[in-house]
Amino acid sequence: MHQITIAAQNKWIRFNFKSREIIATFPSKFTNIHSANQTRNRIVAASDSRLLLFNTSNMELVSDIETASVIKSLTTHGDLILITSGSFRLNSHDPMVKVYDIRLKAYRAPIAFPYGAAFVTFHPRLSGTVVIASPYGQVQIHSIERPQDFSIVYTSVYNIGITNLQISPSGQAIAFVDMSGMFHLLATTSYPRFNRSPETVAMPSSYYKPDSNPVAIDDYTYPLNSVGMPHYTRLLLSVWPSNQVVNVARPPVSIEPPSAPIVVLKDGTKIYQFQGKHRRYQTETKSHKESKSSSYQPKFRSELERAGISSNNPNKLLENEDTNLHDISKAYKQLCIQYSKFGASDFDFSFFNKTCFSGLETQLDYAYLNSFLQILRYIPVFYNLAMNHVARDCPNDLCLLCQAGFLFDMLEKSRGEHCRAANLYQTLSEYPVAQESGFLPKSSQMKNGSNLSGIVQAFAHFFLETIYLQATYAQTIPENTITDDLALIYNERKVCLECGAQTQNRIAHFALDLVYDFVTEDTTFESLLESSLSIKFQNTGSCSMCHRNAPFYNEKVLERLPECLTISCNVAGPENRGFWRRQGAPRRRLNIFQGNDSLAIFNSEAPVYASEGLAEYELTGILAEVTDQSDCSHLVAIVKVPEDLEANKPSKWYLFNDFLVKELSEDEAVNFTPVWKIPSLLCYRKKNSVRDSFDKSWKESINKSVLYDATSINNVNQPYVFSEEDQLDENSLLAIDAEFVCLQEAEKEEKSDGSVRFIQPSQLSLARVSVLKAESGTEDCTTVIDDWIMTKQDVVDYVTKFSGIKEGDLDPRTSTHPLVPLRKAYRKLWVLLNLGCVFVGHGLQNDFRTINLHVRAEQIRDT
């Protein structure tokens, strides 16, 4: 009782805090970093990557456990010890939490945490539940007994990092401290209880200072409007939501005296004769024709054909309207595709898009990323990177940059027709980070109140860093070209405050996170951006020189700015939202001056004189989160389309709300005063740059080696390939046939009246594609492609009656056919398409839609 054991350097100190005396000292030959108490043992993490168990009574060593890397933190409960580890020299963290069982004296299955586990602690109230945190603020609540049960919370300290994490004894609050010294608190309720007992914590009473100039209640000369409104950050109670406002009955319309004579009955009752207007002299107050034409859902194309109508009525969604501060504008509302028995092709997408720019469909697993991809499509430096990469030969079947290039080319060729990012999302789903951690939840798993902006901002970091690594590995793009275009280059300096040892390193950040720690009402966007670019903080860690757990001074000095500056707004919490309410709009132009050791940012509305170290940036894309009154949110893209995409017309702003595309005025595009509209990502591009234009030279350097590749996954020789002597151009006729398998049956709802409503069409996947080339001057054809596509997904129906494909034909372990990955087969068709070849076949529009390839009508001969 009243005793604590302190782990000092090379010794243990037992202290009685009641008598305030040191009662015992135990020598130790280990340098202790972390320690924790267990029922019978004292658990210690040593600096030499060992886990030590001491007897609590005499501090004798009981067990010595080797670990693979340096232990960063540990926690214990019962017979379980949870360990996070990593490398102090590289400042890295292992993507899993190790679980050691004292009773079994062995490790159990680890807990996956791909962000890098830095802190771990057991939940005090939920048995078998642990809280894991990364150094950059991702927090995962995980069940050891049920690994599939976990949830992830995103915090707003990605660019700073956290130094400590604790959970309250009640389990209702999690507290952590970031590297700038700010304290953060996450709670399950608005008024959390911190201790276990039901009694509230005693707090000091607040001091109330009465008004020095009281006003008498009967002073009628005092103007009431002199009493100002208190500062508020949420909607007032007087602002009723639209779903709680109803139209009451109209007052009765007075009956005009009729011109017809009055009929008097024998009982004395007077009756007006019917005048042929409305029964009982009712008045028509609403036009039914107008209400029908104002519908936001178009008729199906099959319905238009049966009715003999060429197109749907004009869409109210595309009309300009005044911005409402509290009700979402029509064009910003969340959209969904309605299905008929003919599938998605029967939906009139042209009802939502009258421009030459294409939207993206929504019925996919990761469709909430559509807006982010649309922004990247209209950034010249990123478009050029993707297209120059995909034109070359990339060996990676899971390359996201290849899939981005395929998607951008499809969006360009479609010229206003809808597209799907199905192949990119399918590739993304095969990444371990999307499968194991819930880092990328599927659209069907998203719930109201989900931090959608936080998910997409974390994905932006992951996506940009991944394509950098993939392009560098494939050697299709020079490494310095990618960093010059997309990355902020920092010179990082770390100083140990105990021994003075210094380390320096050059690091690349592909997105800048805004830090709101010291924001006041007078803070401007320029000052916030400047403080976020200049990073200085202190933290603690193990020094490789003095081998102590010492404080460190960290400084990141900006060395070089990119061509495209991506800013993550990190708007989480009412204070951060209040900043954007006060700003009203992000800066449309910025000047960033970078000297030797100085950095200055100022608004670029005034004329600027060119000077060395001065970079001028222009706002080109905004990813905005739109939240309705039921706390359901979705993302939209607001993009400034460059001049060279609109026949050298002046740049215009466009709204991309999935498959809805609408032109916006500049004032509406950057207006963030409505409470339902919050910025998530901002993209600025450098003005007057040599790379600030779309490069189409990639079309002249397409690598055609994939057409001559006869290799397969299961080592079955491919007998059909193109010859290098084949001339492939717009005069080449290629007969094509494709077979598909069903991955998911159609979902439909049968109503009591016998009608059927289709909820989701069947999901098909390419299983086999065959191409025959017509020999010039003859009627003979040569088979040049006969690819069977390997699939990793579960097939529910092989459609053998029509496709001829049987179970096992697409499995590399059992198939006797040459199997290739989907990307390889797709690339062959993509190369032929861009060489100008003409495809001949039956029902090719539906086939190409399922393959996810847009082919213009002039390159199709449908039989």
UniProtKB/TrEMBL annotation:
<dbReference type="InterPro" id="IPR013520">
    <property type="entry name" value="Ribonucl_H"/>
</dbReference>
<dbReference type="Pfam" id="PF00929">
    <property type="entry name" value="RNase_T"/>
</dbReference>
<dbReference type="InterPro" id="IPR050785">
    <property type="entry name" value="PAN2-PAN3_catalytic_subunit"/>
</dbReference>
<feature type="domain" description="USP">
    <location>
        <begin position="358"/>
        <end position="687"/>
    </location>
</feature>
<dbReference type="GO" id="GO:0000932">
    <property type="term" value="C:P-body"/>
</dbReference>
<feature type="region of interest" description="Disordered">
    <location>
        <begin position="278"/>
        <end position="297"/>
    </location>
</feature>
<dbReference type="GO" id="GO:0031251">
    <property type="term" value="C:PAN complex"/>
</dbReference>
<dbReference type="GO" id="GO:0004535">
    <property type="term" value="F:poly(A)-specific ribonuclease activity"/>
</dbReference>
<dbReference type="InterPro" id="IPR028881">
    <property type="entry name" value="PAN2_UCH_dom"/>
</dbReference>
<dbReference type="InterPro" id="IPR038765">
    <property type="entry name" value="Papain-like_cys_pep_sf"/>
</dbReference>
<dbReference type="Pfam" id="PF13423">
    <property type="entry name" value="UCH_1"/>
</dbReference>
<dbReference type="GO" id="GO:0003676">
    <property type="term" value="F:nucleic acid binding"/>
</dbReference>
<dbReference type="InterPro" id="IPR036322">
    <property type="entry name" value="WD40_repeat_dom_sf"/>
</dbReference>
<keyword id="KW-0853">WD repeat</keyword>
<feature type="compositionally biased region" description="Basic and acidic residues">
    <location>
        <begin position="281"/>
        <end position="292"/>
    </location>
</feature>
<dbReference type="InterPro" id="IPR012337">
    <property type="entry name" value="RNaseH-like_sf"/>
</dbReference>
<dbReference type="GO" id="GO:0000289">
    <property type="term" value="P:nuclear-transcribed mRNA poly(A) tail shortening"/>
</dbReference>
<dbReference type="InterPro" id="IPR028889">
    <property type="entry name" value="USP"/>
</dbReference>
<protein>
    <recommendedName>
        <fullName>USP domain-containing protein</fullName>
    </recommendedName>
</protein>
<dbReference type="InterPro" id="IPR015943">
    <property type="entry name" value="WD40/YVTN_repeat-like_dom_sf"/>
</dbReference>
<dbReference type="InterPro" id="IPR036397">
    <property type="entry name" value="RNaseH_sf"/>
</dbReference>
